[in-house]
Amino acid sequence: MSVKRDITLVEVGPRDGLQNEAQPISTADKIAFIDRLSQTGLPVVEITAFVSPKWVPQMADAVEVAAGITRNPGVRYSALVPNLKGLERALAAGVTEVAIFAAASETFSHKNINSSIEASLELYREVTREALAGGLAVRAYLSTAFGCPFEGTVPIARVVSLTKRLLELGVFEVAVSDTIGVAHPGQVRAVLSALRVEVPTERVALHFHDTRGMATANVLAALDYGIRTFDASAGGLGGCPYAPGATGNLATEDLLYLVNGLGYQSGVDLDAVADASTAIELAVGHALPSRYLMARRASTIG
Amino acid sequence: MSVKRDITLVEVGPRDGLQNEAQPISTADKIAFIDRLSQTGLPVVEITAFVSPKWVPQMADAVEVAAGITRNPGVRYSALVPNLKGLERALAAGVTEVAIFAAASETFSHKNINSSIEASLELYREVTREALAGGLAVRAYLSTAFGCPFEGTVPIARVVSLTKRLLELGVFEVAVSDTIGVAHPGQVRAVLSALRVEVPTERVALHFHDTRGMATANVLAALDYGIRTFDASAGGLGGCPYAPGATGNLATEDLLYLVNGLGYQSGVDLDAVADASTAIELAVGHALPSRYLMARRASTIG
To answer: What is the CA B86 to chain-centroid distance, rounded?
Structure first.
């Protein structure tokens, strides 16, 4: 319960990871996955998204997942909510925190949540107020902060301004997110140099994808700027379903191997996470891309 | 010809990469691969190993490969030589430099080259003298410098001492090598902190494998210590043949994405390397693990 940590891992595999899986995953498999992850020492697990099943069919069982898991009092359970209706469902389901998701690119905002950035911030102002009133902590994602698949480069000034505005809504933390995995350490340094002038470092988390092999290098760069909260996905769940082997989120295992080697105390058991990943691999029906997990598998075979 | 570079990539795909492929690769495919790589701006390509085909069947055609390639005057062509006989063949084949390979672990040395570390250094003293006399530059690998599959931890003092002794033989550079991909940035910092006291930084290259997802992070850590020469393998060739998806060498593409983002001038065209990797993929018969290459493939499909 009272683990000493100097770095915080936010596990997003059950939500950001599984929502990108083409194959439906059963509710029971999701619950078993979350319950395993809850026993690894992870302090936060994002378990689902209270979004319309029309948008994200994989998250249609959000209520059942939230109701079915065995709560570990040492773990914060979070869920994504896109609007007041989602928040209502999340409150009823008994999560301890919710996450809202804004974009740093106008085109991505329209394509992802069918709203301008400004309109989304207005909506999130209400969602945050209601969530706080309901006793929930609120986190924000700022997606496409390092690049947009439609617009390309995203100005750093916009990332800084939107991070500030999200914090002003009352969220405790903004996960500045490299949604498409284009960020490199040079860019991480540039963004964090600008951010730290305007925003307290402890309010910034980073969310990387390993699409171009930069995720652990980006974390290393961010650690030098004092960032201590990182999102990660067990096994590297979240790869693009139509590109076998293409990778999504930074793998929790790879992040742990990095921070363990640097002497940080995360409170998380690396091999327990790898066991959880190995179990969910069977359910998703393909090998997960975490390098650490692959190496562990290879050493078991060889 | 007179490219301005502030970082040097040593391409080891045709040797360290291909020698780990279970499937035989035809001599023509190897030659085409090297010729493509020679047109990408890479300053050094390690093309083959003059070792006994009993040890490494994949390198049995070393003489034919060296004779068959089209030499680009802007490229240094290197080959591995284990002994005087190998050197003789390399001299006859007209390479411009050779590489010797010592180990930092006694057990690995015995298993890999059937010799104690001390005996191998004695042998390499002769090989280096003869190579220099023959007008060849000599490079050294120091394998298992960050960990040994048999002995585990390798003392940093031994890595420093062996690096010094290899340089004293007359080699121009030692590639301090993480043969099994266990190194993390914390260890890279520790090793380089010790090395730089005893050895000029410009005589040290680093050779990483991405087995646990640390390769680009390790390079980032090493750049902060002034290291400017890194080995890499096109496409990440060099994966363990019995573990599909398990990765070997740091991919040249991923390294280039990193150093380009940091503003270094390597003189190498990233997409030209990716084209060479894509061509050799057909010959090796499986997808290569470079993250950048996967992302490029995915964006072509999607």
So the answer is: 18
Which residue is associated with the tokens 């948008």?
Answer: A55
Q: How high is the ipTM of this complex? A: 0.94
Report chain A's mean pLDDT, rounded to a whole number.
Answer: 94
For residue B21, what pLDDT is reported? Answer: 87
Q: Which residues are within 8 A (CB) of B54 and not within 5 positions of it... i.e. 6 or more apart? A: none
- Residue A241: pLDDT over 60: no
Q: How high is the pLDDT of residue B2?
A: 62
| Residues of chain B falling short of pLDDT 50 | 241-243, 301-302
A216 and B217: CB-CB below 8 Å?
A: yes
B264 closest CA partner among B202, B220, B302, B299: B220
B158: Cα separation from own chain's centroid: 21
| B240 annotated active-site | yes
Residue A169 lies in domain: 8-301
d(CA B291, CA A43): 29
Q: Which of residues 211-230 of A touch B (CB under 8 A)?
A: 211-217, 219-221
CB atoms B213 and A181 under 8 Å:
no
Q: Is the pLDDT of residue A77 over 90?
A: yes
Marked catalytic residue, from B123, B194, B240, B283? B240
Residue A2 within any structural domain of the chain: no
B162 falls within a domain: yes
Q: How far from chain centre, in Å, is Cα A152?
A: 22
Domain count, chain A: 1
Which CATH number fits the domain that encloses residue A114? Answer: 3.20.20.70
For residue A37, give Cα distances in angstroms to A10, A92, A99, A182.
11, 23, 19, 28
List, for residues A200-236, the tens digit of each pLDDT value: 999 999 999 999 999 999 999 999 999 999 999 999 9
Closest residue by Cα to residue A137 from A194, A178, A68, A87: A87
> A290 — contact with chain B (CB < 8 Å)?
yes
**How many C-beta atoms surround the C-beta of residue A250 within 10 A?**
32
The DSSP secondary structure of B155-186, one letter per residue, reads -HHHHHHHHHHHHHTT-SEEEEE-TTS---HH
Residue A54 placed within a domain = yes
CA distance B4 to chain A (A): 20
Structure-token pair, residue A290: 């975490």
Three-state secondary structure string covering chain A? CCCCCCCEEEECHHHHHHHHCCCCCCHHHHHHHHHHHCCCCCCEEEEEECCCCCCCHHHCCHHHHHHHCCCCCCCEEEEECCCHHHHHHHHHHCCCEEEEEEECCHHHHHHHHCCCHHHHHHHHHHHHHHHHHCCCEEEEEEECCCCECCCECCCHHHHHHHHHHHHHCCCCEEEEECCCCCCCHHHHHHHHHHHHHHCCHHHEEEECECCCCCHHHHHHHHHCCCCCEEEEEHHHCCCCCCCCCCCCECEHHHHHHHHHHCCCCCCCCHHHHHHHHHHHHHHHCCCCCCHHHHHHHHHHHC
Q: Is residue A68 part of a domain?
A: yes
